[in-house]
Specification:
Elements lengths: L1 H10 L5 E6 L5 H16 L3 E6 L17 E2 L4 H10 L2 E5 L9 H8 L5 E6 L10 E4 L6 H11 L8 H14 L10 H11 L5 H9 L4 H13 L1 E3 L4 E6 L1 H6 L22 E7 L5 E7 L5 H9 L2 E2 L3 E6 L3 H11 L4 H6 L3
Parallel strand pairs: 1-2, 1-4, 2-3, 4-5, 5-6, 8-9
Antiparallel strand pairs: 7-8, 9-10, 10-12, 11-12
Helix pairs in contact: 2-5, 2-6, 5-6, 6-7, 6-8
The structure holds manganese (II) ion.
């Protein structure tokens, strides 16, 4: 980290044109860390473009300066041009070009002459970045961005907006400071951010207490459909595209649903299956204790992530996907039952 910080410091000595990219379907940590990094780099004299592959979900639209984000899907040629102009490209909250989506992946792969900076906390980083801040032990990319900004003597540039953005990223990736990834350092960073005058209760309300009636009704349906398999200590929810349509589903509406499966006293593993408009299926995995949700996601569902929070996808249809999942549970039975011992 120190070495990378020195190298980054050197690179930022002269003013540069910089592109910052978030992963597809950006979450609070991606958007928060991206906006904060943009703020910091802009204040220190750089020209900075913040790019999201697709739109920012509704539950994050209240974030200060969110309108600065350029959406690739809305204007692919312009974004491609901005990337071509950029001398430095930061990838935030992801560590493999594929997470930026098919088209952006190709664009990024076509620019080997650029200097890439990775800031990320997922496992198994790809090796595209000349400067790597990669640490799966960290709660969030936002926590890492805080340390990078302060490590570059940028504490004075962390204003109330930047603090709000970073706090949002840390809060969402730690489930409001309750997931196992929360460390004493996470709390110290959060405390520093609170001292910048943020309204932490308002952030909590904006993220978690701002459901639409459609979303609450969809949650009701999801909870009603939850199936618990006590022999595997596993709970899962399947939502078809008809279910989603019935409640006027908008992107982000199912955010957090998967966690309810872990609220069951005896469950160690919770899974949410969401059928896409095309026949693909998106899957979220959450686990307690040492059950490796990321390993399970990677082995059978083209995904990955963290030990206790991972994602995956299939292109084989909803029923086939759920069947595959049910067929693979026996293989993990021992780990599932003893995950939280
Ligand atoms: Mn993250």
């Amino acid at each position: 980290m120190i070495q990378s910080l020195d190298e980054l410091n050197k690179l930022l000595k002269q003013n540069k044109t910089i592109g910052l990219i978030l992963h597809r379907n950006p979450d609070g940590d991606a958007v928060g860390s991206g906006l904060a990094m943009q703020n910091f780099l802009k204040q220190t004299g750089h020209e900075v473009y913040l790019i999201s592959p697709n739109e920012v979900p509704a539950y994050l639209q209240w974030l200060p300066q969110v309108q600065r984000i350029k959406i690739y899907e809305q204007n692919p040629n312009k974004v491609k041009h901005l990337l071509q102009q950029s001398e430095l490209i930061f990838t935030l909250d992801f560590n493999d070009f594929s997470r930026a989506g098919n088209e952006l992946q190709k664009i990024l792969q076509s620019m080997p002459e650029k200097t890439f900076v990775m800031i990320d906390h997922h496992l198994e980083p790809s090796d595209y970045a000349q400067i790597m801040f990669s640490d799966p032990e960290r709660s969030s990319t936002s926590e890492m961005v805080y340390d990078i900004i302060t490590g570059l003597s940028g504490q004075k540039y962390i204003d109330k907006n930047t603090a709000t953005q970073l706090y949002t990223g840390i809060m969402t990736d730690t489930g409001s400071f309750k997931f196992p990834n929360t460390t004493p350092h996470t709390m110290r960073v959060a405390a520093d951010l609170m001292e910048k005058g943020i309204n932490h209760n308002k952030i909590q309300i904006a993220i978690y207490d701002s459901f639409s009636t459609d979303k609450l009704h969809l949650l009701g349906e999801a909870l009603h459909k939850l199936i618990f398999l006590p022999q595997y200590k596993t709970a899962y929810i399947v939502l078809s595209k008809d279910d989603l349509k019935k409640y006027n589903y908008k992107k982000g509406d199912t955010e957090g649903f998967v966690n309810y499966g872990l609220a069951l006293a005896d469950s160690n593993f919770a899974v949410l299956f969401l059928e896409n408009e095309d026949k693909g299926v998106r899957i979220s995995f959450r686990s307690k204790g040492n059950f490796p949700a990321n390993e399970f996601a990677k082995k059978y569902f083209n995904g990955g992530g963290h030990r206790n929070a991972a994602g995956g996808r299939t292109q084989t249809g909803l029923q086939e996907t759920v069947d595959l999942f049910l067929n693979k549970l026996p293989e993990y039975k021992e780990k599932l039952i003893h995950a939280n011992d």
